[in-house]
Amino acid sequence: MTDAPVSKIRNFSIVAHIDHGKSTLADRLLQDTGTVEDRKMKEQFLDNMDLERERGITIKLQAARMNYKAENGDNYVLNLIDTPGHVDFSYEVSRSLAACEGALLVVDASQGVEAQTLANVYLALENDLEIIPVLNKIDLPGAEPEQVIQEIEEVIGLDCSNAIMASAKTGIGIPEILESIVQQVPPPVDTVEDPLRALIFDSYYDSYRGVIVYFRVMDGTLKKGDRVKLMASGQEYEIDELGVLAPTEKQVGQLHAGEVGYFSASIKSVEDARVGDTVTMARKPATEPLPGYTEAKPMVFCGLFPTDADQFTELREALERLKLNDAALSFEPETSSAMGFGFRCGFLGLLHMEIVQERLEREYNLDLIATAPSVVYRVTTVEGEVSYIDNPSALPDPQYREKIEEPYVQVDMITPEEFVGTLMELGQSRRGIFKDMRYLTKGRTTLVYEIPLAEVVTDFFDQLKSRSRGYASMEYQFLDYRADKLVRLDVMINADRVDSLAAIVHQDKAYHVGRALVTKLKELIPRHQFKIPIQAGIGSRIVASAQIPALRKDVLAKCYGGDISRKKKLLKKQAKGKKRMKSIGTVDVPQSAFMAVLQLKPEG
Amino acid sequence: MSTIISLPASAARPVISPVPQAAYLHIPFCRRRCHYCDFAIAVTGEFVSEKDKTSPKKTPVDGSNSDRIRRYVDALIQEIIQGATAASSADPSTLPSLNTIFFGGGTPSLLSVEQFERILQALDRRFAIATDAEISMEMDPGTFNRDKLAGFLDLGLNRISLGVQAFQDSLLEACGRLHRRRDVDRAIAMLDDFGVTNWSLDLITGLPHQTEEHWRESLDLAIAANPAHLSVYDLTVEPGTVFGYRYEPGEFPLPSEAIATDLYRHAHGALTGAGYDHYEISNYAKPGHRSRHNLVYWRNDPYYAFGMAATSYVNRCRFSRPRTPHDYAAWVAAGGEISGETVDPVDEWLETLMVGLRLSNGVDLKNLAQQFGNKPVRALVELLQSYKKQGLVTMGNGAIALTSPDGFLVSNDVLSTIFERWIDEDQL
């Protein structure tokens, strides 16, 4: 099965928005080509993780090899390379797409193009893929294929004259799709004789075999037992096992240019076989690696603390295990006077963060407190040294800083026309720079803003959804770092600065954020025998303050036989407000106050 | 291992709870409900007999009262006699006699002499009343006359708690009281005439529109009346009361927290200066005149209770009776079964501290260690060090106590810190 001639191989992926039917379509292709027998068919075969299955989204990509006898009588090998649907993982998507020659663009015929689809389609176009438009769910009563075709043509500028009308659920259009993959997607370039170069597009850690690497051979041939070198990491390994995914693993002796497969080589961590790296021969290596390798860098940070301090070790072990499989996840221990021992974790984006948190809680049974997400700032000192800072308390004092820069992202929103006004307000309120607005069909509009990532990570998505009653969709991608009037907002409790409550904010928002911080703290810190001033300030300038009055009298006047149960309840309630107090100077601050502040989100 | 008291940590907690020697009797009837009151009471109106509903008239204080009270007293006596409440299945003849009996309300002075007699007889038959027993009753000015007082005293009443509350008619009216200054003066004169010295005078601070001048005057008059005991309650605005609807604590016309604190401190200064011992957060006594019955609560000892809404604490079980006369009578008729969970060791520990720290004597460490073991006692001493440094807690003479008045004033802060330490523990 491995000696398919290069001209009979077709490598493709599916680009679609969540819920538009990508997984169902993939399942249907596996079934119709006989790759998976009907009786073995689990629903949505490609989505392996429970979490993915539950949310109906694909997080980690997988691949599947199908044999297909075309109408012309020839046998073809179709490799479907699945991609994650979310731009948090856009780098991984881009590497998967780089392993293909074509892509199916799947759009729900009743919903139209969504922001996520757009972002991934542009990635596919950048990789010069042949794109086949597929209108899915054509059988649904609300389907409006004509409108949607018009939308695709206008927004993406794609010729839709050959668009396929399909229903993955009922099987409509599936033969047409298979046939057009063979007809329209070009075969790989035959470079079997060149020195080996294989592109890693995914990897995962297996506790028995080490890292399993998914790759596409771009040039040359790879055999079991070959000694290979990873060009970016410089490490050398011997191929222990080589195979294809059909879609379960099937071992083979060799794979040549154009083919897709997996290998294991006793690699200890996915960090050592990063997505985008090039596999070549240890002896006679290729002169140039494949283009496009970068290390995915965390963009969004948050602190994760176990609610139960005893779970710290378990949390560390869980993070280490997740890290084996997730090179983009970063973490380092953090000690907070308020929250105790935990980790400061870095993620590719908000969805990545949410997924990691959920896996920690669900798969590792951890009970976690997460601080509000923050971003990485680029700080230049007066000496001209550049550093990246994700923890506000590490920010040098103003006199040592030349400038602070923050990451900006491009936010693409697609929304029904009627919500344009409120979404523009949202964009403006988040320091957004308006870039573009275009009317699509049927009163649908795209809005493009450039917004600081810090403003996007704090409930921008929730705001977008609530302001548009759920109709708008959005996507964002990293643009660049830009200097801004950013300041460190400190919080002082009884004149003691509390590092763990410091925040980096835009100067114009400092008052607003400071106000919210001191108000929340005043609410949650119990009264003491003395007055407690709470202040928020920039350097020596106070922007907001509040005062907790001294406790003069807190006493139950009567406590006789009939009062005891009720008074006990009152005291228990009062005691709950004092749970896990930490001393800031002479002031006892309950953990609930820290948690509330660290999870505080600015109003939209 | 350094120990405070040399007992094994696991000693503690006798398996069998001591048998009560105190009894509380609830007489829920009031002529009307005061504006601050959220007790379980039954309002009778200004005394009307069942036969004479159409022409309300002022209460006759000489003993005749309504059918409702008669029916209630019957149920109360039945509860005492049928004895399910006495909890222990022990033979009644072996039960220890009662050392203290307290008639609370409501307005127990609305009872007739004959009703009072029947209740005492029932108690004596069921438990035996010790010869030196303290028998107390809450009596409101304007609800008893010389004959009634004479009758009660003859039957053995030896301690009277007089519900004066304030000496100013405007304040009495504002809190919905029916009696006035002249009723107070008459009642005090009557007690003097009968040679009653063991009596207590109730006052309330923090009433709406109450000024510091009012308060000084009330204290002066109270001291002049020379009671053996005084209770001074800082007004608590309870939800569901007239005050609860009308006022916000700390806001006009209620005094600010600062002024209410001053009133409390002023009472402490004036009364201790006049020879009263500030022995409990809200109570003052001349030497030898602390309320023996109430000390039972504050030492977290067991006690019987009889009557509507009354709470008993027997065999480590707190049980509250039905809260209306009708439901109560039905419950008694059905056998008066006591049910409920027993207080677990952690809760017993917290309750013991909650009530014990109300006393200026505080809680005795040796007793605590005997009952609960050394471990929690050590933790408690450790926990309260910062309060000790602030002068709110003392730890001398083998006892932990709140200071008076500073520690008393913020007792909830100290107690909630103690609660926080043990609230989530399964065991001590």
Major sheet description of chain B: 9 strands, mixed
Number of strands of chain A: 34
| Helix percent band of chain B | 25-40%
Give the strand order of the largest sheet of chain A, numbering strands 1, 2, ... along the chain.
11-10-16-7-8-15-12-13
Which overall shape of chain B is indicated by the principal axes computed on the Cα atoms? Answer: globular
The number of helical elements of chain B comes to 16
Determine the oligomeric state from the structure. Answer: heterodimer
Regions of chain A with pLDDT < 50 over 5+ consecutive residues?
A: 51-61
How many beta-strand elements of chain B? 16
Can you list the strand order of the major beta sheet of chain B? Answer: 9-10-8-7-6-5-4-1-11
Can you tell me the residue ranges of chain B where pLDDT is under 50 for at least 5 consecutive residues?
1-12, 47-64
- The coarse silhouette of chain A is globular
Mean pLDDT of chain A: 87
Largest interface: A-B, 29 and 46 residues
Proportion of beta-strand residues of chain B: 15-25%
First-to-last CA distance of chain A: 57 Å
Question: Which short descriptors sum up this protein?
Answer:
heterodimer; A: 604 residues; alpha+beta; six-stranded mixed beta sheet; B: 428 residues; alpha/beta; three-stranded antiparallel beta sheet; 16 helices; 18% strand; globular; disordered N terminus
Topology:
The complex is a heterodimer of chains A (604) and B (428).
Chain A: E1 9-16, H1 22-32, H2 50-55, E2 63-69, E3 75-81, H3 90-98, E4 102-108, H4 115-126, E5 130-136, H5 145-155, E6 164-165, H6 174-184, E7 197-206, E8 210-219, E9 221-223, E10 227-230, E11 236-238, E12 241-245, E13 249-251, E14 254-256, E15 260-264, E16 278-281, E17 300-306, H7 312-325, E18 330-336, E19 340-347, H8 350-363, E20 368-370, E21 374-375, E22 377-381, E23 386-389, E24 401-416, H9 420-429, E25 433-439, E26 444-452, H10 453-457, H11 460-467, E27 473-483, E28 486-493, E29 496-497, E30 503-506, H12 510-524, E31 532-538, E32 541-548, H13 564-576, E33 581-584, E34 587-590, H14 591-598
Parallel strand pairs in A: 1-3, 1-4, 4-5, 5-6
Antiparallel strand pairs in A: 2-3, 7-8, 7-16, 8-15, 9-14, 10-11, 10-16, 12-13, 12-15, 17-19, 17-20, 17-21, 18-19, 22-23, 22-24, 24-26, 24-27, 25-26, 28-29, 28-30, 28-31, 31-32, 33-34
Helix pairs in contact in A: 12-14
Chain B: E1 22-27, E2 29-30, E3 42-43, H1 67-82, E4 98-105, H2 113-127, E5 129-139, H3 146-154, E6 159-165, H4 169-174, H5 181-193, E7 199-205, H6 212-225, E8 229-234, H7 242-246, H8 257-273, E9 277-280, E10 283-285, H9 292-298, E11 304-306, E12 311-314, E13 317-320, H10 325-333, H11 345-356, E14 363-364, H12 365-372, H13 374-383, H14 385-389, E15 393-394, E16 399-402, H15 406-409, H16 411-422
Parallel strand pairs in B: 1-4, 1-11, 2-3, 4-5, 5-6, 6-7, 7-8
Antiparallel strand pairs in B: 8-10, 9-10, 12-13, 14-16, 15-16
Helix pairs in contact in B: 1-2, 1-10, 6-8, 11-16, 12-13
